Amino acid sequence: MVQEKRVSYMNKKALSFIVVIVLLCIATIYSATSGSIQVSFTELVNGLISGTNNDVQVIKDLRLPRIIIAIFAGAALSVSGVLLQSVMRNPLAEPGIIGVSSGAGFMTMLMVSIFPTLFFFTPLFAFLGGALAFFLVYSFSWKSGLDPLRMILIGVAINAVFTSLSQTFHYRGSYTSSMVTEVTTSTLSMKKWADVEIMVIYGSIGLILAILVYSWCNYLALEDKTAKNLGLNVNVARFVISAIAVLLASVATATAGLFVFVGLLVPHIGRILVGTDHKWLIPFSSLLGALLILLSDTLGRTIIAPNEIPASIIMALIGGPFLIFLLRKSDRIYGN
Amino acid sequence: MEINHITYSYDHKVNHLDDVSGKIDVGKVTTIIGPNGCGKSTLLGIMANNYVPLKGQIVMDGKSLITVKSKELAKKISVVHQHNSAPADMTVERLTSYGRLPYKSMFSSNKTTDKEVVEWAMEQTNLIDKRNKPINTLSGGERQRVWIAMTLAQQTPFLFLDEPTTYLDIYYQYEILELVKRLNKDQGLTIVMVLHDINQAIRYSDTIIVMKNGKIVTQGKPKEVITKSIIKKIYGVDVSVKEDEQAGLFTIPIGI
């Protein structure tokens, strides 16, 4: 009986992984072949190899970069959510909600506006901004322990401040008013292979590091005292995991713009499907997050083509009701 | 293990422990008792190096506790806390295996030893049948045994328990205490625990430390320490202390 249960549990986990991987492959192919220019899959492959098909060349220059960025940004933001939730032991911790993303966004915009020549260092500025926001939230909410409620309230406040700072900045520089949208939403159009490079390099580093620290995330799910008595250096673990989370969120924000909600929704679904063990939760969340953002972006640019709806808006539109549905349906939050 | 002139304060205003000294005998069961807020859990926390004392030190194997690295310490002392939490889908076996953390490093771990020790720990706590159960499906007593199994997997010579029986009904209370006693007798573990029930302390301890207002009032064998006058002084309760052939020494409150 017990054995049976365990087998079915393992199957559910394996099945979830297989389904998400298959869906991600299908979504990638669909996304690459549809839109304002439509080609078949074979045409696409042949064109990429031979380099003689003009349609495919356009797809390669315009569509592939945004697909890759969508995949990596989704993975990065979701894993960032998982990590922040484990560090703060709070299911509401999410880079968008507690201000890490808006901090990263603001700092990037500020520095690039002041020193336009330093565009190459965008990820660094984003990281600094994200880290600043996280540090502020963490230190203001620390009072002999992290009170979950206080942390979220302070996070919301910090987020509001950075978001308004960004908006102020944009309204002042009205000549760039077309960029205003980028502060609050995300458009993945006009992404170049240079952006892909940044996203893939830093994103991969962050994701690999996240997988390496999975056991720390597991131990932090216990009480601090318990983890400490097991010999875990709780402060070091928290610091390292937070830094990885901020790196992931910042680089995603710097290249793909602000996405709220992914880091909240994806880990929640992940816990229902593969459980709370971070050994599975981290890889699964990265796949599911990639799938969700890619789907949102693909929908956004195909529903009312040639016009576009930003991926973050689609994401929130689908994600909001879905999260409510999940919360109504399950009686557990964060597995407690 | 020696407790040398420990002073500690949570807020730097009131001393919650005031120049406390005492001794823990290796291979024995020592129980700390005293009224709420007397500092018993604080003292246990300092002995586990969870708090750093303002003055004084805990000496173990001739070394001051604060100089010992946290992983090394986790091979010497394991602690069962009063409040514990873990994700709901955590299974018995997985939680028990967390006790192997001090023996793991980033690049190496001895999987066979780990597995054997986890098996042994679950056996000791009678949890083999429940190994794949999520802990939130277990009874309070079983759950407490899982936390003990985790500490056993640490293979430490010292085991500390902070009010291990508090949330349990009487059957599970005695089940836990019998387990602790067996671990002391069979495995030679040095036990230090905080208890509320004086009669349980008498029955299961070699030594009792009595505390009040951040100080140790007295320390000694149950028969020496548990007297009418000391209980009155500590708790403000009048008791009758009796000895019975079957029950041994016991106390019954008769008024305040």
TrEMBL record, chain A:
InterPro entries cross-referenced by the UniProt entry: ABC_BtuC-like, ABC_transptr_permease_BtuC
Keywords: Cell membrane, Iron, Membrane, Transmembrane, Transmembrane helix, Transport
UniProt entry tagged with the keyword Isomerase: no
Similarity remark: Belongs to the binding-protein-dependent transport system permease family. FecCD subfamily.
Gene Ontology MF: a single term: transmembrane transporter activity
Compartments, record wording: Cell membrane
Source taxon at top rank: Bacteria
UniProt GO BP: siderophore-iron import into cell
Topology term for the membrane: Multi-pass membrane protein
Transmembrane regions: 64-84, 96-115, 121-141, 198-216, 236-269, 281-303, 309-327
Function field: Part of the binding-protein-dependent transport system for heme-iron. Responsible for the translocation of the substrate across the membrane.
UniProt main location, coarse: membrane
Organism: Pseudogracilibacillus auburnensis
Keyword Aminoacyl-tRNA synthetase on entry: no
GO cellular component, one term: plasma membrane
The name this protein goes by in its record: Probable heme-iron transport system permease protein IsdF
From TrEMBL, chain B:
A GO CC term assigned to this protein in UniProt: plasma membrane
GO molecular function: ATP binding; ATP hydrolysis activity
Matching InterPro entries: AAA+_ATPase, ABC_transporter-like_ATP-bd, ABC_transporter-like_CS, P-loop_NTPase, Siderophore_ABC-ATPase
Residue ranges occupied by any ABC transporter domain in the UniProt entry: 1-238
Main subcellular localisation: membrane
Pfam families: ABC_tran
SMART domains on file: AAA
Membrane topology listed for this record: Peripheral membrane protein
Keyword Membrane: yes
Gene Ontology biological process terms in this record: iron ion transport
Cellular compartment(s): Cell membrane
SUPFAM superfamilies assigned: P-loop containing nucleoside triphosphate hydrolases
Keywords attached to this entry: ATP-binding, Cell membrane, Ion transport, Iron, Iron transport, Membrane, Nucleotide-binding, Transport
Keyword Cell membrane appears in the UniProt entry: yes
Gene3D superfamilies: P-loop containing nucleotide triphosphate hydrolases
Record's protein name: Iron complex transport system ATP-binding protein
